[in-house]
Fold this sequence. Notes:
By secondary structure, the chain is α/β, with parallel strands linked by helices. Helix 9 (241-258) links the parallel strand 7 (220-225) and strand 8. It starts with a helix and ends with a helix.
Amino acid sequence: MPSVFAMFAFVLLVVGGYGYTNQPAQEPPWTQVVPGFAFSPYQAGQSPIENVEPTVEEINQDLSLLAGKTRAIRTYTVEGQFGEIPALAAAHDINVALGAWLSPDLLANATEVERLLEVAQSPSNNVIRLIVGNEVLLREDLGVQQLTAYLDTVRAATDIPVSTAEPWHVWLKNPELANHVDYLAVHLLPFWEGIALDDAVDFSINTYRQLQKTFPGKPIVVTEVGWPSNGRSIKQAVASQANQAKFLRRFIQRAEQESIVFYIMEAFDQPWKSDLEGSVGGHWGVFDSFRDAKFATDSPIIAIPQWKLLAAASIVVALLMTVLLLIDSAALRDSGRTFLIFNAFAVSSLIIYVIYDFTLEYHTWASVAISVVLLLGVVGVFVIVMSEAHEWAESMWYRNRRRLLSPLSVAASQSESRFQPFVSIHVPAYEEPPEMLIDTLNALARLDYPNFEVIVVDNNTACESTWRPVQAHCAQLGERFRFFHVKPLSGYKAGALNYALEQTCARAEVVAVIDADYRVQPNWLSELAPQFEKPEIAIVQAPQDYRDGSENIFKSICHAEYKGFFHLGMVTRNERNAIIQHGTMTMVRRSVLEEVGRWGVDTITEDTELGLRIFEQGHEAVYIDQSYGRGVMPDNFTDYKKQRHRWAYGAMQILRSHAGQLTGFRDSKLTRGQRYHFVSGWLPWIADGFNLVFTLLAVLWSGLMLFNPIAFNAPPLLISVVPILFFAFKITKLFTLYLVQVKANFKTALAATLAGLSLSYVIGRATLSGLFVGRKIAFIRTPKMASNLAVLQAFNAARDESILALMLLCGVGLIYFQLGFDSRENMAWCLVLVSQSLPFLSSLVVSVLSTAPNRDSVQSQEKTA
């Protein structure tokens, strides 16, 4: 019932939020016939750049649409069929301010001016003004003297008033130009000035008055005035349909009061202008490119007229997400369900709004392709967010753990049962320091369990002085300990484990595996082996743990990061019998191991792949969230990265080879919960891969923005907001879970988050390689007890990450100095670049920390001093 109330509350919140932000705004009605429209009759898909021109019939249809709405139109050229416009307009009782296009091409200019005079003197007799050139001085296509020569020529040949059209500031900068015109043709477009909507009309009127004062007695005609309905922002100016409607309705009222003659910029959207003016260029029309009116002219203005449809779509999608998220949620507290419902509604609202915003843009095939990729990326991000939110909820807001055995219940089960199966402990080794491996064997010798053997398989160690001491020590420990040095032996660790299986005592019912650096506790087998009395149990797993976490700063943060998986992820996965089997501190029923085909040699993560094969046969696993053994961690950042690369690459190998079983297209006994956890558990790693692609594309796009800022604007605000929110969500989740569930202090939680971020690049590379390349790579052993890296080596260990971070931050600096933060889109995009750089900077920080001296050596130096 609380979940129903929560859903109802969020439904009200969505509807109320949309309703509040879309309250009808009362604005002056636009009921009168306006003096004029700027008129470019290009239809959707047409462009003067590509020489795809409108037909005479299409031009006439546009004029018929404007008939009765305006007294005049303003044109820009008389070339080709555009010279027919005055005659066509006369039939609709529309006058024409006829324009001639001037460019650096002097021969073309001569032809254009000649045709202008010819058309102006045509029998239609509805050409009331001539405009020789449009923003010629602004574009610097011609000099003032060249332009005035054309003006003087035309004025001498006609008695129709002549001018040239320029923005207001160009007239003020070149006052001598007024001596060569009959009136000032002025562009007043406060959007380009970055003026806020509420100040835009006053700005326009005040600018008009300034021109009147500067040029007394000279008539002024505003030949372009308007506001775009979509596109990037500039300073305080925001492009939207509502803002366009508000500006025009306010300006028309003021212009009528001030007796200003004006031409609205413009009648119809011109998508082709986006190539010249950026994303905003195609959205200045009162009608869109399909000739549909964008807004009402006399009723209250609503920011999103379709808001009720968007709200309904958001709610439907949210409810579908909620149903999926709350499957098997009986163990969640009400607060956990509410958290999931909140995420469902937040994500659905964003998805629907992103799609809605997408529909407002004009698209070419190229932009559609790019946009589809971006939309798929956004949807992918939201899928990952929902799976992460699900794990977050199940980690923090659970009523009870249905399958997790506590140490007390383990002990109780042991005391109630005398079942003590024979356990064969396998220790694979390769080039391991002999003193470390001997320490591991001594710990095994102290086990308080009666029925076990230890098989050490040293595979392919070259130096005899490395493995001989271990062989001798096994002999000293007694007949329970058997040592095998095998060379050659293929299959890496899996090959060694399969070899050990062949040497296993016939009485053994359970095979246990530990790594060569693990020091187990005496009660390991006595507390866990009795679980195999239940015939359905095939795997009993304890977490990996480490004994050298306090050795130095680097290992401290690594230790904190490891805890997240073993004390959070594994615990939630265990609830649905979907743990990741890892190749140390694991125990597996021997008969099942033989049944599923032993350890797999076709993957570098043979432990996880074996566990999945066991689940596919319908067996169960038990996870005990208590440490029974501790090993040693990688000694430097390079080895830390290699280890995670192996894990991530191996996971992708498994995903490829078991795709049929995980998706249900191939027969298996996997449950829905197991499929969910194996796929969703690897989604964050896959996200790191695609995020790496996104980073490279972001660097490329930033370069294009700097090279051609008009053609390549910053991405739309929503596209930038999504990765920023995703990054914030990811960091908040990590930090909160470490702080609350792992019971880490603030410093440790921060360190764990830093370490997790530092691996983003290597995980991204590994997942992309594993998913799309898929070649078999060698098993890379994680070296133990190695010397620390020097500082220069540490920088080299994070070389790629450092280069990417530098490129991203340089992009931010160059965008700021070259393009500025006048646009909200530019600023948001730079925030994206900064957020993308943080994981790479984390890699450099962690790598440098790995060079810090061990605490024992520092203390020793202090004592010596």
